[in-house]
Amino acid sequence: SLQDNVASKCLKMHTLIAIKCLCFCLQDDGNFVIYGWKPVWASDTCGSDVFRLCMQADCNLVMYNKAGGAKWQTNSHNPGGCNMCRLHLTNDGTLVVYKESDEIWSSANSRGEMNDVMT
């Protein structure tokens, strides 16, 4: 899992993280995809100008463009911050955001939110 205690952790374009038989990748086309033997989940942001994916200290997973505009998010932010955020890829390919031990977002239930107003 990727953990965040103080500052945001970011993955830049072309980043591939592999865990067992699964991986997640921020692709050249702006899509964030979880792969098993085939695609398991995607953010549906293909064609966007996304440049990096950040697990922020406020528990929100956000994709930004090069200009710093937020293009997609899990909308799992916790106003006032928190002490422990965690991004976890499960064995079945589900991506989960935890605040301390509580699940606050899951790719099994959501594709996240496009952020046209946050550009």
UniProtKB/TrEMBL annotation:
What Gene3D superfamilies does this protein map onto? Answer: Bulb-type lectin domain
- The superkingdom of the source organism is Eukaryota
**Could you list the residue ranges that cross the membrane?**
none
Sections of the chain in a coiled coil: none
InterPro entries attached to this UniProt entry? Bulb-type_lectin_dom, Bulb-type_lectin_dom_sf
Q: Which residues form the Bulb-type lectin domain?
A: 31-119
Q: What is this protein called?
A: Bulb-type lectin domain-containing protein
Q: Which organism is it from?
A: Sander lucioperca
Its taxonomic placement starts with:
Eukaryota, Metazoa, Chordata, Craniata, Vertebrata
